[in-house]
Amino acid sequence: MDKRFPIQDQIEMLGAMLRGRVITPAQADYEALRLVALAQFDTRRPAAIVRVATPSDIATTLNFAQATDLPLAIRAGGHSTGGYGVADGALVIDLRDLSTIDIDTAARTVWAGAGCTAAEVTHAVEQRGLIVGFGDAGTVGIAGLSLGGGIGYLARKHGLTIDSLLAVEIVTASGDILIADNTNHADLFWAVRGGGGNFGVVTRFKYRLQPLPAFTGGPLVFPPVPEIIAAFVRLADQAPDELTAIAMVMPLPPAPFIPVEAEGKLAFVAMMAYAGDAEAAQKALAPFRALATPLADLVGPAPYSSLYMLDPPPEMRGMVAVRSRFTKDFGLDDARALVNAANACTAPMSMSQIRVLGGAHARVATDATAFAHRGSRFMVSFLAMYGGGPDEVAAQERWAGDAVAAVAPVSDGTYVNFLGDAEARGLASAYPAATLERLRRVKRRYDPENLFRLNTNITPA
Ligand SMILES: Cc1cc2nc3c(=O)[nH]c(=O)nc-3n(C[C@H](O)[C@H](O)[C@H](O)COP(=O)(O)OP(=O)(O)OC[C@H]3O[C@@H](n4cnc5c(N)ncnc54)[C@H](O)[C@@H]3O)c2cc1C
Questions:
Q1: Which amino acids bring their CB within 6 angstroms of ligand 1?
Q2: Which part of the chain has CATH 3.40.462.20?
Q3: Which ligand 1 atom sits nearest the alpha carbon of residue 200?
Q4: Atom 4, ligand 1: which residue's CA is nearest?
Q5: CATH code 3.30.465.10 for 101-211
Q6: Helix, strand, coil tally for the chain in percent (to 5)
Q7: Hey, which of 145, 161, 199 would you mutate to test ligand 1's pocket, going by the most ligand atoms within 8 Å of its Cβ?
Q8: Among 35, 38, 147, residue to substitute to test ligand 1 (most atoms within 8 Å of Cβ)
Q9: Could you tell me the distance, in angstroms and rounded to a whole number, from the CA of residue 251 to the centre of ligand 1?
């Protein structure tokens, strides 16, 4: 690229070199396309958004970013809690148009484009009686989620999303388009399973699919009583691997199955997911139902994708403060702290959440992937969803920080995909020292100049 031309002209020239589109502030859809899922990043104005159409578009754009020294942001589903999918003055590589889904039913695998959301891939595979587990929200991108680990409703049955990952196609900083798997570029394949977007731009993910002939799931809603929560967590920890629960204390949204007098009040909403035979599901669920009289019980045979029912509608788009922590224990005092945290939150919507891990997630060796929290049986997370100015941002960030410190005072590590942009010590808590060192060596090999640095950044060794 000829540096004598003004940068906007150079960006226009980039557009002429691509199959995809370059969107600059001069274009009508720039204002809509610069936005990401979390509204606290709405003020950010990138130099351009590059809607790439092919891996070679990505290679060309990477080359351009290096030649022009423009900061580079990578965006897939746009749900980064650190806001890494958009930055002032940056070139944003937007992967949304890489959305092909190629299912090989006989081999039980799928190649899914990095622009797909969790719901899109789930809907496509479940029609064939197959499944791969993502997270609890259908709108989240498979790309960012997979690169951090992917903790969802099949964690106990089939492990994290990365435990079903067989290969990636990735464009590295040098513009090479590689397939990384257990035999080719195995170091890179290890690093992208938990190390985030530090090593290149993944264009496609190949997942192993599991048969899912029957599924039982949905919300089981209880009063937010610490004794019920602690007993629930104990049961979920001892349940068969088929059963994974993500449960939270949250204000009840209006819904046909919620008694009007309970609307807006706190409840313990346990999303139950049983991946297996319907009769065995009823047996496994019985002790949970016996804990107390549920305020609502919508757990029944359903498509797996029905679990995305708590996705906020687009009109509720707002700011999100988030903190998470892995823990080895969760008892009655922790349950009390969880309820206290929910009570203390002033945001219109919040989730004080406990995920019960163990099962297949725990059977993967700690050093098998760059996600190293296999020994943690639980993850607590706090999310406040709100609107307002800087004072409100500070208040909600403080709430989330205080909440996590009260429920899990001893840090057993943090989930890299739930690091907020306010968490300065994020990297050290997301990776144990040995994992981080190994990641830094892989980084040196594939991105020695740290081109991919707008992320939870792993610097080259
Ligand atoms: C409402 C909500 C619910 C969530 N629920 C869960 C959950 O249940 N389980 C869970 O595990 N996580 C969950 N998350 C966290 C989520 O996994 C991360 O926020 C993830 O980064 C989002 O991915 P994305 O593609 O949507 O985001 P993006 O903002 O597009 O991507 C995030 C970052 O990942 C990197 N990246 C993304 N795609 C690529 C790529 N193709 N190549 C290279 N780098 C890339 C980039 O650094 C990018 O900035 C949730 C987040 C939200 C906001």
A1: 36-37, 74-81, 84-85, 95, 114, 135-137, 140-141, 143-145, 147-152, 196-197, 201-202, 417-418, 455
A2: 215-428
A3: 43
A4: 137
A5: yes
A6: 35, 25, 40
A7: 145
A8: 147
A9: 25
Q: Any idea what DSSP says for residue 452?
A: -
Q: What residue spans in the chain does CATH classification 3.30.465.10 cover?
A: 101-211
Looking at residue 313, what is its pLDDT? 76
Nearest CA among 113, 40, 114 for reference residue 75:
114
Q: Divide the 461 residues of the chain into consecutive groups of 10 and give the mean pLDDT of each group.
A: 80 95 96 95 97 98 96 97 95 98 98 98 97 97 98 98 98 98 98 98 98 96 97 98 98 84 93 97 98 95 92 82 94 97 96 97 97 96 91 93 89 89 76 96 98 95 96
End-to-end CA distance of the chain: 30
pLDDT for 261 equals 87
Q: How far apart are CA 273 and CA 307, in angstroms?
A: 8
**Rounded CA separation 275/209 (Å):** 13
- Calculate how far, in angstroms, residue 104's C-alpha sits from the geometric centre of ligand 1: 25
For residue 237, how far is the Cα from the chain centroid? Answer: 22
The 8-class DSSP code of residue 254 comes to P
User: What is the Å distance from ligand 1's center to 293 Cα?
Assistant: 36
Spatial distance between the Cα atoms of 210 and 155, rounded to a whole number of angstroms: 13
Domain range 7-94, CATH architecture: 2-Layer Sandwich (3.30)
At residue 2, the pLDDT reads 66
Q: Which helix (H) or strand (E) holds 204?
A: strand 201-208
pLDDT of res. 424: 60
Evaluate whether 440 touches 459 at the Cβ level (below 8 Å).
Answer: yes
- Whole-angstrom distance, CA of residue 407 vs CA of residue 433: 24
CATH code for the domain defined by 215-428: 3.40.462.20
Q: Which ligand 1 atom sits nearest the alpha carbon of residue 415?
A: 11
**Distance from Cα 96 to the centre of ligand 1, integer Å:** 13
DSSP type of residue 117? B
Query: Which of 132, 244, 417, 421 has the most ligand 1 atoms within 8 A of CB, as the residue to mutate?
Result: 417
Specify the domain boundaries for CATH 3.30.43.10 within the chain.
7-94
Which pLDDT belongs to residue 1?
Answer: 63
Give residue 258's pLDDT.
81
Q: Which amino acid is at 117?
A: T
Report the nearest atom of ligand 1 relative to the CA of 76. Answer: 30
Instruction: Give SS3 for 120.
Output: helix
Query: 99-105 long-range contacts, Cβ below 8 Å, gap at least 24?
Result: 100/204, 103/128, 103/130, 103/209, 105/130
